[in-house]
Write a structure and sequence with these properties.
6-stranded mixed β-sheet, 6-stranded antiparallel beta barrel, binds magnesium ion, binds guanosine-5'-triphosphate
Length: about 650
């Protein structure tokens, strides 16, 4: 469990942590000298029965809220410190608002310095504090009057924390490993160490991780979890991770960076979120306001694009797109805090809905509907809503990344969903059954239209057909739909394209007349049809025109191009195949050469060789050295040729 303090400057946070753990977390010389905490302090303690608790002591000074924010991110429990003499002060309220916006639900109030005031004052401050807290997610948390000087009340508070720690269900280790880096230093002998709160997943010595957003691959050499040497660390713990990597140096790593599993390294600068503007804000949050965005331990400047209305009124929440000046590592559900442009005031905060916003169309009704779908809980309902809005299907790997699902979580979610899963196993697309059916229908309809427009041609290549569809269909979904239709024999492959089953390219009228005359010339008893030039002369047709005609009828498989200048009817080829089979059968080893085939067919040496090479291409014969044998029976080969016809 990780506990962070919160509260106004000088209210006794650091002294209370010391009273609880024995550790003085103010270690900077400047902190000692001024008696003011500047940066985060860390202490660890075994409160009871070995439950190890990490304390993060935050500074209360208004100038150091930035550091406070880096400390309270990802914690389990907040210890709100209010001095009984001062009572609630500005940073009491600001820190409380921050805890509320971060969604911290567990905590306690420590009323400190009770040795300095009469009992009535303690009661008064208790009432004031309870009033403030009651308006937040921490409403109803217990209040402990203490004095860190006399130690009065400290044992009671300590007992309470021990009970909470023992009762706190161990944080789920699901999700990919993500640690929000708050410090980086070098240790002699060990090298670079980064520390921070583990947001999700777990890490073990030897793991390969990525420093994000830099994208630097690193390896884990050693781990301290909650300040103790360990083989592994997990969500809900503070970890110090000793990392190595080529090109890695201390100067490259800063507070706000992340140490993550390589699978969730996906820096982004456009984030959709729902943010609430604090009721204390004097003015609405207008479109394109410059802000500081605190996410994890980072502080990044950017702009707020307000998506629904012109502005978000104080005390209300709305959908926004955050346009960041620098990339950040984030996933759905990450909490964030907004501070004003000059970083003096906390103005609001909320949670990430989509870490990968589109560049265009961020305010369209369609996009807003998608954002509302992406907000839904639990994940199964959310997925169903997203599928419902995604006619083109949902890239599931991207979703797993955005939602920080590990493989087991993702698989369980996909399996439980009512969707058709298509595409490569490592990059699947999910599509709702209704859209799947609609896409199948659209493909069949488009193919029908294609045939209607080009009755003389075979069907288009899959990719070409995809582009004619009225709605966007991704190549993966298209391939899957075509495969499905092929399986059901609704379409057939036709050379490089697909056609509706039963589609027979019809000759255009002009071609049909020419075909009459050409086929008469090709249909020869001696199995040696004239060359194309001879046909052109014979019929008195322009050679180029005839060549184009042959290209068309070849596509329709009415003739076969055996050589550049010679075309055959299927029937003639079938007879020649029969000759080849007879020659092979007569040969003792089944092998025959071109000469034997020429003699048996009587078509002459050159044409015999051209025909044999064409047969090789069909798979009817196979050449071995100077001879050939029958590779597949002619009946089988021609059955296939006909099927496509
Ligand atoms: N009498 C009395 N003095 C206290 C008590 N707790 C803290 N103090 C004193 O109050 C002053 C501030 O205490 P810190 O613990 O440094 O306060 P802090 O909240 O950590 O202050 P920042 O970190 O700067 O926000 C110190 O001089 C403490 O000795 C207490 O319970 N009783
Ligand atoms: Mg302090």
């Amino acid at each position: 469990m990780i506990i962070a303090t919160a509260g106004h400057i000088d209210h006794g946070k650091t002294l209370l942590v010391k009273a609880l753990t024995g550790v003085d977390t103010d270690r900077l010389p400047e902190e000692k000298q001024r008696g003011v905490s500047i940066d985060l302090g860390f202490a660890y303690d075994n409160l009871a029965d070995g439950t190890r608790v990490g304390f993060i002591d935050v500074p209360g000074h208004e100038r150091f809220v930035r550091n406070m924010l880096a400390g309270v991110t990802g914690i389990d429990f907040a210890l709100l410190v209010v001095a009984a003499d001062d009572g609630p002060m500005p940073q009491t309220e600001e820190h409380l608002a921050i805890l509320d916006l971060l969604g911290v639900k567990a905590g306690a109030v420590a009323l400190t310095k009770i040795d300095r005031v009469p009992a009535e004052r303690v009661d008064e401050v208790r009432r004031q504090t309870e009033g403030l807290v009651s308006a937040t997610g921490l409403a109803g948390i217990p209040v402990f009057p203490v004095s860190a000087m006399t130690r009065e009340g400290v044992p009671t508070l300590r007992e309470h924390l021990a009970e909470v720690a023992a009762a706190l269900a161990e944080r789920s280790r699901a999700g990919q490993f993500r640690l929000a880096i708050d410090r980086c230093f070098t240790l002699t002998g060990a090298g670079i160490v980064v520390t921070g709160t583990v947001f999700s997943g777990s890490v073990a010595v030897g793991d390969r991780l990525t420093l994000s957003p830099q994208g630097l691959p690193v390896r884990v050499r050693a781990i301290h979890a909650q300040n103790q040497q360990a083989q592994a660390g997990a969500a809900g713990e503070r970890c110090a991770v000793n990392i190595t990597g080529s090109g890695l140096s201390k100067e490259l790593v800063h507070r706000g960076d992340w140490l993550v599993a390589p699978a969730v390294h996906a820096p982004t600068r456009l984030i959709d979120a729902r943010v609430r503007l604090l009721a204390s804000e004097g003015r609405p949050l207008r479109h394109w306001s410059p802000v500081h965005v605190h996410l994890g331990a980072s502080d990044i400047t950017g702009r707020v694009a307000v998506l629904e209305e012109a502005a978000i009124a104080p005390g209300t929440a709305g959908l926004v797109q955050l346009v960041l000046d620098r990339p950040v590592n984030t996933v759905r559900g990450d909490r964030l805090i907004l501070r004003d442009q000059s970083a003096q005031r906390t103005i609001g905060g909320g949670a990430v809905i989509d870490p990968f916003s589109p560049r265009k169309g961020r305010r369209t009704q369609k996009r807003l509907a998608m954002l509302r779908a992406l907000e839904r809980e639990p994940a199964a309902d959310r997925l169903a809503s997203v599928l419902d809005l995604s006619a083109a299907g949902v890239p599931l790997s991207r979703l797993a990344l955005a939602w920080n699902l590990d493989n087991a979580q993702a698989e369980a979610l996909w399996r439980g969903a009512d969707m058709v899963r298509v595409g490569k196993p490592d990059d699947p697309t999910g599509i709702a059954p209704g859209y799947w059916q609609a896409t199948r229908d659209a493909v069949l309809a488009a193919l029908g239209r294609w045939h209607d427009l080009r009755p003389d041609q075979p069907g288009p290549a899959e990719e070409r057909l995809r582009r004619t569809l009225p709605e966007r269909v991704t190549p993966d979904v298209m391939s899957a739909v075509v495969l499905d239709l092929l399986r059901e024999k609704k379409v057939v492959r036709d050379g490089a394209g697909v056609s509706l089953t039963g589609h027979r390219p019809a000759l255009l009228a002009a071609d049909a007349a020419l075909w009459e005359r050409v086929s008469a010339l090709l249909d020869v008893d001696d199995m040696r049809p004239p060359r194309i030039r001879e046909i052109a002369e014979e019929l008195d047709v322009d050679l180029r025109t005839l060549e184009q005609f042959f290209a068309r009828v070849t596509r329709m498989r009415m003739v076969h191009r055996v050589a550049d200048n010679r075309y055959y009817l299927t029937e003639t080829l079938r007879r020649l195949a029969h000759v080849a089979e007879t020659v092979a059968r007569k040969s003792p080893d089944g092998m025959f050469d071109a000469r034997a085939f020429r003699d048996a067919s009587g078509i002459g040496r050159n044409v015999a060789i051209q025909v044999l090479e064409f047969f090789d291409g069909l798979g009817l014969t196979r050449r071995e050295g100077d001879a050939r044998r029958i590779h597949r029976p002619a009946a089988e080969v021609f059955a296939l040729v006909e099927k496509v016809e």
